[in-house]
Design brief:
By secondary structure, this protein is α+β, with helices and mostly antiparallel strands. It has five helices and eight strands. It is rod-shaped.
Length: about 230
């Protein structure tokens, strides 16, 4: 009888322990549920409003980024146009300087060549002295070949030539733009010495033609030739 009572007490103790645990667990669940209160209408409206505002800001950011990219592209286009304009102005400045040089309005200096044309030696068997004198057509041949070969400036006996220069032969002298010069005639030209020399020395070219006309031909390459601007002429 005592053993049965003792067993009943153990069972009752276990049942009470389980019930206590279940009650404690239910209480915690209930308290947790109470602590998580649902959003009120105003809170939902505020949340939706903030979300919409965030979306609007994102959209504005995309629009601003697209606009910034467009501005960058315009800047690049402007830079390209400015570069082209700068190149155009640079080319115009070069052309203007080249025209001033051809007009003889500016001092020029550079490498080049010096061609000397002298009258041929007297030939007693040839009574016509004109057959071994330097004439204007001899000078013209040299000048034309030099210009064709790229000479940027030419002078005869120091007299600078321009676009409207003229050369006349008057017996043993040659008149250049109103100034007379006797032989020998020194023709200086600024340009690439190798190119100018090669053009004059080509077989069957200007040098051979002048030598066949009894003209004494001399060619020297020059490291520096200086030509002063023409004064008092338009």
């Amino acid at each position: 009888m005592k053993k049965k009572v003792k067993t009943n007490r153990v069972v009752i103790s276990i049942v009470c322990l389980v019930l206590g645990f279940m009650i404690a667990y239910s209480y915690r669940v209930t308290q947790g549920a109470k602590s998580k209160q649902p959003f009120t209408d105003s809170q939902w409206e505020q949340s939706i409003s903030l979300r919409n505002e965030l979306n609007d800001q994102k959209e504005k950011n995309r629009e601003l980024q697209n606009e910034l990219n467009s501005k960058h592209e315009q800047v690049r286009e402007y830079e390209a146009e400015l570069a082209n304009e700068a190149q155009v102005y640079f080319n115009l400045a070069e052309d203007a300087e080249r025209y001033r040089m051809f007009l003889g309005k500016v001092k020029v200096k550079g490498k080049g060549v010096k061609v000397t044309l002298s009258d041929g030696e007297y030939n007693p068997n040839d009574p016509n002295i004109n057959n071994y004198l330097v004439h204007e057509h001899h000078v013209f041949k040299v000048i034309n070949e030099l210009y064709i070969s790229g000479a940027s400036a030419i002078a005869i006996n120091g007299q600078r030539l321009t676009y409207n220069s003229y050369i006349l032969c008057d017996g043993p002298v040659i008149t250049v733009d109103g100034y007379q010069y006797p032989a020998p005639f020194e023709i200086t030209a600024i340009g690439e010495p190798d190119v100018l020399s090669s053009a004059l020395n080509i077989t069957g070219g200007i040098k051979d033609q002048l030598v066949n006309d009894q003209i004494i031909f001399s060619l020297q390459e020059q490291n520096e030739i200086i030509m002063e601007p023409i004064v008092g002429r338009k």
